[in-house]
Design goal:
By secondary structure, this protein is an alpha+beta fold. The protein is built from seven helices and 14 strands. 22% of the residues lie in helices and 25% in strands. Helix 6 crosses helix 7. It is globular, with a radius of gyration of 22 Å. It starts with 23 loop residues before the first helix and ends with a helix. The model has no long low-confidence stretch (mean pLDDT 96). GO terms for molecular function: metal ion binding; NADH pyrophosphatase activity. Belongs to the Nudix hydrolase family. NudC subfamily. Its EC number is 3.6.1.22.
């Protein structure tokens, strides 16, 4: 059975220990502990070993890049504090103290090398650092804001407004009709690559309504939101979404695509999906197991 707690990027999370976030003295002491674990990112890419997972640093990180923004991610099961540090965009690895220890790897490529705990930590850090990068000024008065509470909030010193990291809900849905399901592709995707459709939830609608609306807008497929079956959800740090996976029963089969959203869409059989998942389909391939779209397709295919 598909379970959100086991979904890639969400599995085996650490204890976020949020009660420590407002204690600056505790955070400063924890960051200097000999057993502290620190992961590094630069421009959203994690610092990882060439043949393995993350390269974890200790208190020596302050010598590598003094004063770089940090986030308190929480504690592991042994009570070890875990932080993430965001290195400057122009940080020169080759001339640094950590040259040769690893490399900055594009997140999607690196995620496949990480343990579930590492992937969850790096995914969380990526989302929050990207949010900080685009929210340096107060939306109320325009003054510069400051990072507070272990990296989980920004505060405006001018007007006192508090700003919190945002998470955007996205419906990712598989429309099904009998023994067929709907897949689509965007023009910039590799040849043969297809996936389930997805779209952001708008103000004033439920995630089920968003799924039905997006299916009709993008592919002309009508579904009743009441038919939506929740499967699982997944945090997706590109930049900070919560992908909510649904399966909907389609009322119609005729496809009319919106060319600004999709290059093409088609109904495929359960056997087609099984072949895609196995990597043996002669024409099509689907997202890897890191993505919730893979698990939506797998959930439906295995029912047959």
């Amino acid at each position: 059975m598909t379970n959100s707690n086991d979904m890639p990027l969400a599995a085996n999370p650490i204890d976020r220990a949020a009660h420590h976030r407002k204690d600056d003295a505790w955070l400063d002491t924890a960051f200097k502990r000999d057993d502290v674990l620190v992961l590094l990112l630069r421009n959203g890419d994690p610092f990882a070993a060439k043949d393995g997972g993350l390269v974890w640093m200790g208190p020596e990180i302050e010598q590598v890049s003094p004063g770089s923004p940090r986030i308190f991610l929480g504690e592991d099961k042994n009570g070890t504090p875990i932080f993430a540090v965001n290195l400057p965009s122009k940080f020169d690895l080759e001339s640094s103290l950590i040259a040769g220890a690893g490399e900055f790897i594009e997140f999607r490529a690196a995620a496949g090398r990480m343990s579930p705990l590492e992937a969850n930590c790096a995914s969380t850090a990526r989302s929050i650092f990207l949010w900080h990068g685009s929210h340096g000024f107060c939306a109320k008065c325009g003054a510069g804001t400051a990072i507070v509470e272990g990296g989980w909030k920004r505060e405006c010193p001018a007007c006192g407004t508090e700003h919190f990291p945002r998470t955007d809900p996205v419906a990712i849905m598989l429309a099904v009709k009998g023994e067929k399901c709907l897949v689509g592709r965007q023009a910039n995707w590799p040849a043969g690559f297809v996936s389930s459709l997805a779209g952001f939830c708008e103000p004033g609608e439920t995630i089920e309504q968003a799924a039905a609306r997006e299916l009709e807008e993008e592919a002309g497929i009508v579904c009743n939101p009441a038919s939506a079956e929740y499967v699982a959800c997944q945090p997706w740090p590109f930049p900070s979404s919560l992908m909510v996976g649904l399966i909907l029963e389609a009322d119609s089969e005729e496809i009319t695509i919106d060319p600004s959203e999709l290059e093409s869409a088609e109904w495929i059989s359960r056997d087609d999906v099984k072949q895609m998942l196995a990597g043996t389909h002669p024409r099509l391939f689907c997202p890897p197991p890191m993505a919730i779209a893979h698990h939506l397709l797998k959930t439906w295919a295995e029912r047959g």
